[in-house]
Amino acid sequence: MKTQSHSPVLVFVCAIAMASLSIGCGDDETGGTGATNGTGATGGSGNGLSNAERACQLTDAATVTEIFEGTASDGVPDDVIPECRFEITGGEAKSVGVFFFGPESNWDSVREGFEDNRGGTTDVSGIGDEAFYPNDVGPTSLVVRANGIIFEVSPLIETTFPPSLPSAALAEDVAELANTIADS
User: Fold this and answer.
1) Rounded distance, CA 100 to CA 112, Å?
2) How far apart are CA 13 and CA 143, in angstroms?
């Protein structure tokens, strides 16, 4: 049975979404987050870090391992997408990407990018100040506004061809990690 990774699709979709967005890149003294403490769910204070590096400040391998089935590696920033990727062995998700989309003032443009490029969005209550999932993937990917920033949690799974749907447990894990980041 042939397996197929969604990685090229994820890179393409994220590149399209990012091209249509206005992302804050640290143009004020707080690095565009409005935060002053430099750690946790604020994505750091900027300090010359890329958005991918700031995404890696939102969570850690121990938290990802605790929430997702399997064992997570340390997060690795990928400035192309920009995300922090945690590789996972032994679970349904092969990796989990945490994306940092800048300050909450970008919320409308981030949401518009997902509306235009990802088949619309569906609101999700109870996570952060506001949250939604892109309709093309459903609740296994969540975009959240919390603590003055915008972030996304999105796992990558390997599926067989034809593709199978992710489990409900994976969507629950994504929501738990999104809540953990939003509440920190």
Assistant:
1) 16
2) 14
